[in-house]
Design a protein that fits this description.
Blueprint: H1 2-25, H2 30-60, E1 89-90, E2 93-94, E3 96-105, H3 110-119, E4 124-128, H4 130-133, H5 137-145, E5 149-152, H6 159-163, H7 169-186, E6 192-193, H8 205-213, E7 217-218, E8 223-224, H9 234-244, E9 249-255, H10 258-273, E10 276-278
Parallel strand pairs: 3-4, 3-9, 3-10, 4-5, 6-7, 8-9
Antiparallel strand pairs: 1-2
Helix pairs in contact: 1-2, 3-10, 9-10
Bound molecules: zinc ion.
Zinc ion binds next to strand 3.
Pfam families: Polysacc_deac_1
Domain NodB homology: 96-279
InterPro entries: Glyco_hydro/deAcase_b/a-brl, NODB_dom, Polysacc_deacetylase_ArnD
Length: 297
């Protein structure tokens, strides 16, 4: 319909162009009146075609995406959302955004991490292990109710079980299982995953394709705090992050550990001082953060 409409317009303007030339030759002639009539007729046909095209479009086109109702909380939706780049400029200034992420929970530290995050008006993305969900179900509900994102981090966190086969089957089965468990707790389905031990080198191109085809998005990180390896040394965690962050968008890897709870207030303070705003993962504004820069994820 659209093509037809375009070609009608082009045809109409060709006639109009030709008529101007001819009317100069036969000034005040009877033919000019006839030509004027023809032009009006063509314009009329063009107009009614465009009207009809618009009418047909409104009859058959699906409703715009914004009309579809979405769960209010966090903007989390069931279906794959529109993927767009995170806006990096606001009023001409480059926005610096820090995504705080906590892996391997929920745990006995989840509540303390949330208390500190709330003090700094910050939200985090939690990548949770399925086997821990049974022990701390209330922590999962709380973190979601307070505006944090429930990311997925496999059922077992076992390198052997997830990667030894080289294929994606066991990996995907674990992530589908943990996804169902989180869904049963909170009532909607999260799609963002983090591969235990990171996606590289054990997850190749075909493997990544399988993850994307299963409807997941996958985040690695930009700055690793190495907090898990620094028990009793919160200052070392703080200085690692201090040295590591410099990008406009940072995804900071931390874990649910005692030393992380101890370091967190200082970490949030230093990020603020460096001009970072804290953001929680938003599926409607997905940002690609994986080691392979794979845009499918
Ligand atoms: Zn982990």
């Amino acid at each position: 319909m659209k093509l037809h409409h375009e070609s009608t317009k082009v045809y109409g303007s060709a006639i109009r162009g030709g008529s101007r030339k001819r009317s100069r030759e036969i000034r005040y002639g009877k033919f000019s009146l006839v030509l004027m009539g023809l032009i009006l007729l063509v314009m009329g046909i063009t107009y009614s075609f465009s009207g009809m095209a618009h009418w047909i479009k409104t009859m058959v086109a699906p409703p715009p995406i914004s009309v579809i109702q979405q769960p209010a909380q966090l903007g989390l939706i069931q279906e794959s959302p529109n993927v767009k780049e995170q806006p990096t400029r606001f009023l001409g200034q480059v926005r610096k955004v820090a995504y705080i992420t906590f892996d391997d929970g929920p745990s006995k530290y989840t509540g303390q991490l949330l208390d500190i995050m709330n003090q700094y008006d910050a939200k985090a993305t939690f990548f949770m292990v399925g086997e821990n969900l049974d022990y701390y179900p209330e922590a999962v509900k709380r973190l979601v109710n307070e505006g944090n994102y429930p990311g997925l981090h496999s059922m077992t966190h076992s390198y052997k079980k997830l990667y030894k086969s080289g294929g994606s089957d066991k990996f995907l089965n674990e992530f589908k299982e943990v996804q169902k468990k989180v869904e049963a707790l909170i009532g909607y389905t999260p799609h963002l995953i983090r591969a235990p031990y990171g996606s590289s080198p054990q997850i190749g191109e075909a493997f990544r394709g399988d993850i994307a085809a299963a409807g997941f998005k996958m985040w690695d990180w930009t700055t690793d705090s190495l907090d898990w390896d620094l028990p009793g040394q919160p200052n070392k965690i703080i200085s690692r992050i201090q040295r590591g962050v410099h990008r406009d968008i940072e995804v900071i890897l931390m874990h649910e550990r005692k030393q992380t709870v101890e370091a967190l207030p200082q970490i949030l303070k230093l990020l603020k001082a460096k001009g970072y705003e804290f953001e929680v993962y938003n599926p409607n504004e997905h940002v690609v953060v994986n080691f392979s820069h794979d845009p499918r994820l």
